Amino acid sequence: MTGGWLRFAHWDQLKVIHLNLNIHRLHSCMRMAKIRVMTHTHPQQALAHAIRFLSIDAIVKAQEGHQGVPLGMAEIATALYTRHLKFTPQDAGWFDRDRVVLSNGHGSMLLYSLLHLSGYPKFPIEEIQRFRVLGSVCEGHPERPHGAAHETANGIEVTTGPLGQGIANAFGMAVAEAYLNARFGNELVNHFTYAFVGDGCLQEGVGQEMISLAGHLQLGKLVLLWDDNLITDDGSTDLSISENVAERFRVAGWHVIELDGHDIEAVSAALEAARKDPRPSMLACRTVIAKGIARLQGLRGGHSGRLYEEDAQAARELLGWPHAPFVIPADVQQAWHAAGQRSDGEYQAWQSRVTSLPAAERAEFERILRGELPANWQQVLHDYKHKALQAPPEPSGIFLSAEINDLLTPVLPERMVGCADLEAPTSHKRGLTAFNAHDRSGSYVHCGVREHVMGSMANGMAAHGGVIPLSVTYLAFADYERPAMRMAALMGLPVKFVFSHDSIGIGRNGPTHQPVEIIASLRAMPNMWVMRPADAVEAAECWELALAHTEGPVSMVFARQSLPMVRHTHTTDNLTRRGAYVLHEAGCGPRQVTLLATGSEVLLAVQAREQLEAAGVGTAVVSMPCWELFNAQDAAYKRSVLGTGVQHVRIGVEAAVRQGWDAYLGIDGGFVGMTGFGASGPADELYKLFNITPDAVVAEARRLLVS
User: Fold this and answer.
1) CA–CA distance from 78 to each of 89, 103, 262, 266 (Å)?
2) Residues that are catalytic
């Protein structure tokens, strides 16, 4: 929100509409029952005010920001951080810490204030003063350090901003904690996940998916703190919503408490009750948006209306806070530092328990904490790659991935799989057991038809640590996961997105399920590897690379139809590691044609090459399973793969749209693929209908050679 009619250039202009504001404020008071004058004598009220005034001062200095959340949730945050949260600012990455997610990420000054006050080293007062300045850790929305391992964690668990993603990430963290708790026990893994939540998080569709699935799984260590202020950016919530939100949680099996969010004792009591209840908890905290800013509290402008120095001064007078901007009195600062040290005993006891483990158990636990793969983990893949040369083809390309996933079960117990109601056609459960409300040791999460929360869950698992998450569905449904995939790429999380049914090759299900454009759109996403293997050997190589990749997500895309072998000679080298490689060089003479293909179309390129070579046209076939890896190669290697020469032509072959291919083909290069959406019919007939055949490739080569 820009502040709309509540943003003004000068204080004098505010006086002109003073009467109007009072009328609107009166209406808000009537609707919300009251806006309490904040003259509390609660012994911790000054701690909450410290959050308020750090937020006000930072936003005034930055000349922009969202004050509604930090001012409205100050008491809630104070109760959580000073009485209940298990955390150690000096070791922000302590594995058994409670996790806190600011799902309403626009209210980032709430989190930054808490991290500064409680003593996180990366958030000194100088950084608070640089809120929204380029290069500051206090960015407009909280940004998780990329690849945030134990040594780089700073207190921000996940990047939040797109509403709903944060609570879904928190759900994934709670799943990861429950799974690891079942494996290692309470002595090593036993912590809660809390999320600050706004109305927008609960209105976004992913929020309802999370509510439903978390309630079904009865994740008792997941606690949401809802900023129930009856206001959204447009105005009163009754403009767009009329249901009882708390009831949505109750019918989904949640523990719900409705309370005054400005009463520290009430919040603390609710948190205590939540920690004892076996169900996930939602604390509906009735609050006043921007509480303390007399001009804006309780109004839509409280969300992000421009704050001025006069507003800050008026708030100081209203709340009895005589301190200068960015100054926290010593007693308040000491109380906050004490809160940050409250868990030191638990931290030391946990360290002792880890140290006392038998050597093998400790080594395995610490390996999991570091996110390292076990010794010789690649051997399973190398063995599979060798045996695949003699094995009959799987009936479906996705079954190659399923077989590899199953073989990895005893090797990677930290791997968890989420699947969106597609167990049979994707087959990634096999030897795994279900994670459910009664058995937390299972590593397969039945997500139902909920792709969006499935992707966000996987992000939360990866951010939590100790788990390698896979998210499995059809490629056509990647768009349901796209917001989560984008956030995984932005955060650099090592999530493995596995997709099946990747083209018109799915056949009779028709164009709704034939994702002709989605591969191109995924390739357009920064920091996302997109892999489309051509056969079982490339599938094993892609899996090896994907598991080793820890700095971002990977999309592994598989065909529904069978993928016959195109690699017939075993090599210990992972040819896919360079993104593209020459599968067959020209044999009958100098290279005149280079056929570039991915996935199921590599076989078509091989068959076309046979015809061209028989006709005396020197033709090479290049398999390009991962463009992103190929783009990272040196120029000499790229030239050797793509081919050069005045009389040389390149043709791309892929059952998808051309977008992106011109970087390799040039604008004059040929392309055999899709130009629009598909159709319903048998796969072999569709390939003929859309002219994606060896004969079509040969014809395109001849056309280019004579042009």
Assistant:
1) 16, 17, 10, 12
2) 451
